[in-house]
């Protein structure tokens, strides 16, 4: 039995007077930590309450409370007129004291076990310096009607008739929202679906992941554009499938090139973003849409249609999605709803034949069993009351103004450096550099000028030197400043 004098209490217990955690809990927690990490062993005698209060410079009643907490949890045994003794039985014979000035609250920096590390899923870094930044085409959260969404959320939260339903776990999601969303998609996208043919998820990326898990097996062949969205590519590669690319031109995905592959190999799935191809923003032509559906039926592959920015169109009514013309159940249609709303009021959805939707719910039962029926109720009301239509009409007017202003500045300031085609919709412009340029040097020069360019919007190989430049999240003044910085950065990068 060790003497309490031998235990360096000040090293084991370090109090923080600014913490919101009560002092007695800080003491008991750190002593438990010391026992668990074998700095205090079975049979060690702790200092008495008066001695401990003197060592830690706290009131004796605080120590009494801390010891009571330890005894209640079974870490120590208090014997009246004898002392307090550690109850935990550990194997080591010697007490290992914490090095001087070290904290028991430090968490290990590395795991003590081996695990697989994925290089496939390495995600591009975010802007950590809070600079003026570009992205690949996100909406401006400053335009969101937070007050309306918050009011609806609060109203539903306080509505007594909703309290029971909100407490329920349902992988089917909110039926009211599914009905309104299916009606919304039928009207806006020419679909003919019911609430039983739609799955609600937390995000578009979750839709892609679930669809991949259901449809694909290792070594299956998946076709994507020669330039395509990096997130699905990571998901496909992680699944262990064979990803093959085909060209993308001004009419979208090259269907003739797809036909050649189908004649030679068995293609399991084609992933595409036909409304505005990511990243080049081109729209899949009507003729190619028909040809693609015919190929899917002839060769038996699945079309995973990602309609990530259908709501943003400016010059004409957008072409209807492939899913609206699918007669044979070959298309799984995914998208996001509320992308232009505040981040907490966004959701993903997946449209497919009912037997496939039933399978998706098995995965949701594992990945997102609880869901968010309250938020879905709010989104359903935004649709039913027409607020989402009014908001999108207002927002699209602003986004069109930003697109046109950016195009005007690019033509005036950077006509000798970049070329682009004005997109009919979406929130990004595809800029191709006319002259050879090192895009990594451009990124570095821009950062020196206080503009952050994320690496995932830069595309460079022996055939392409381009950038997907989002404009939705920046106002007119910010657009002006960014184009000016880009002009300087291009000059500086060429001198490096």
From TrEMBL:
Name assigned to this protein:
Transcriptional regulator, GntR family with aminotransferase domain
Q: Which family does it belong to?
A: In the C-terminal section; belongs to the class-I pyridoxal-phosphate-dependent aminotransferase family.
Please provide, alphabetically and separated by semicolons, the GO molecular function terms listed in this UniProt record: DNA binding; DNA-binding transcription factor activity; pyridoxal phosphate binding; transaminase activity
Start and end residues of each HTH gntR-type domain: 21-89
* Keyword Transcription found: yes
Its ancestry begins with: Bacteria, Pseudomonadati, Bacteroidota, Flavobacteriia, Flavobacteriales
Q: Which organism is it from?
A: Weeksella virosa (strain ATCC 43766 / DSM 16922 / JCM 21250 / CCUG 30538 / CDC 9751 / IAM 14551 / NBRC 16016 / NCTC 11634 / CL345/78)
Keywords assigned by UniProt, alphabetized: Aminotransferase, DNA-binding, Pyridoxal phosphate, Transcription, Transcription regulation, Transferase
Record has Nucleotidyltransferase as a keyword = no
Q: Which InterPro entries match?
A: Aminotransferase_I/II_large, HTH_trans_reg/aminotransferase, PyrdxlP-dep_Trfase, PyrdxlP-dep_Trfase_major, Tscrpt_reg_HTH_GntR, WH-like_DNA-bd_sf, WH_DNA-bd_sf
